[in-house]
Amino acid sequence: MMKEKTFVFHNGVELPNIGFGTWQIPNEEAYAAVTMALKNGYTHIDTALAYKNEENVGKAIKDFDLPREEIFITSKLPAQIKGYNETLEAFNTTITNLGVDYLDLYLIHAPWPWDAIGTDHTEGNIQSWKAMEKLYNDGKIRAIGVSNFTESDIQALIDACDIVPMVNQIPFYVGHDQEDLLTFCEKHNIVVEAYSPLATGQTLNSPEIKEMAKKYGVTPAQLCIRYCLERKTLPLPKSTHEERIIENSQLDFTISPEDVEKLNAVEDVRK
Prior knowledge:
By secondary structure, the protein is an alpha/beta fold. The protein has one domain: NADP-dependent oxidoreductase domain (TIM Barrel), CATH 3.20.20. Helix content is 41%, strand content 15%. The protein is built from ten helices and eleven strands. It has helices at residues 27-39, 54-64, 84-98, 122-137, 151-160, 179-187, 207-216, 220-230, 242-249, 257-264, and strands at residues 2-3, 6-8, 14-16, 20-21, 44-46, 72-77, 105-108, 144-147, 167-171, 191-195, 234-236. Strands 4-5-6-7-8-9-10-11 form an eight-stranded parallel β-sheet. Helix 2 links the parallel strand 5 and strand 6 (72-77).
């Protein structure tokens, strides 16, 4: 569920309505990038064991010296790790890397290993999810979810486990709105987080987006990130440049329903 400036998971946990993504930010740059994000008001930081930057993400959070409960930290179980004990071990590695006692959100990074996209790992995902349920029930994680899961991937967890995922983090941007998956998640009260809300920068050269951004007096990036919020998804923009980090969070405008429809009709820039 979306509220002004926050989203609320189906277990009542609230989180800021924009996150700072750290995908493709090397460990040596992550400290400065996360510090800049925190300095400019971001309190929702997204990382993953696979990003190989958890240590410096955690160090930046610790050195910034905000109370731990004021920072919302997400990390992810690597896509190739499937199984109960394997998940518990990976989680322990992550909280050690980050230097924290608990996570706010932990996700299965993908339903299949990245080198075997589309293969069936349903049983492994179920075992990983059961381990995450244990960590959640033990108070080690405040919320649990998935990433890159389709409707059938999520349904398999719902059918075999106790807890419905709180989140599905997926690529979501103008031209790639995954309408059916969005509807499925909404039906099950699963918050959709939008990673790559700028399609790794590729949406910014779209003539339609440029023209509409001019109409609203904002940048193409701001328009694309605001679009995610208008579609009730939680955007996770990332940058290592301070002016863009600031710009990406300045979203105090709304897009008219008519213009949202126009953006829905824009072709996927990655096709």
